[in-house]
Amino acid sequence: MSYGTIFIDLSGRVSKNIFGFRYLTCSAVFVPRASLSSMEERLGAGTPKWRDATDSSLDLALELLSSPGVHSLSAVFDRDTPAWAAFWTDLEAFDKAAERLYGTDSSFLNPAVLARCFCFGEVEARLAGEVLRRDGP
C-alpha cells in the first residue's frame, strides 16, 4: 500500500476576471510516509517561496522531487474560455440563491473557493492515480 502525504499548491489568481493572466497552474507532490521527516528536515523553515528561489534552493527542490517514491504532477487550467466565464456566472447565482435560502453568508460556496477546490481535487485525483499506477495499491 502506498502511504504518504500529498502537498498541493496553486499559482495564479483565482478570480472571474483574468487580469491578463490566462492560466492557473496547480501542482501536487506525493511524498512517501517514510521520507517525510527527512524531507521536512532538509527543507527547513527558511526555504524561500518559488518567486524568491535561489540556485541552491532550486537544486534542493529538484533533488527532493527526484527521490525514490516521490511523484509530482502539474495541471494548467486555461481561464480564457467560455467555460470559465460560465462557471463563474453559474456559481455566483448559486451562491446568491443559497444566501437567500439560508439567510446567512455562504462564503464557503463562493466561486473562488470552489474553483480552488476543483483545481486541487483534479490534481490530487490525477496524482493518486499515478501513484497507484506506478507503485501499486
- Give the SSE order as H and E letters: EEHHEHH
List the strand order in the largest sheet. Answer: 1-2-3
| Total of helices | 4
Q: Structural class, from helix and strand content?
A: alpha+beta
| Number of β-strand runs | 3
Distance from N terminus to C terminus (CA atoms, Å) equals: 5 Å
**Coarse morphology:** elongated
How much beta, percentage-wise? 15-25%
Q: In percent, how helical is the residue content? A: 40-55%
Biggest beta-sheet profile: 3 strands, antiparallel
Mean pLDDT: 89
From the alpha carbons, calculate the radius of gyration and give it in angstroms.
18 Å
Low-confidence stretches: none
Can you describe this structure in just a few lines?
The chain is an alpha+beta fold and 137 residues long. It has helices at residues 33-43, 55-65, 82-102, 111-135, and strands spanning 4-11, 23-32, 71-78. The radius of gyration is 18 Å and the shape is elongated.
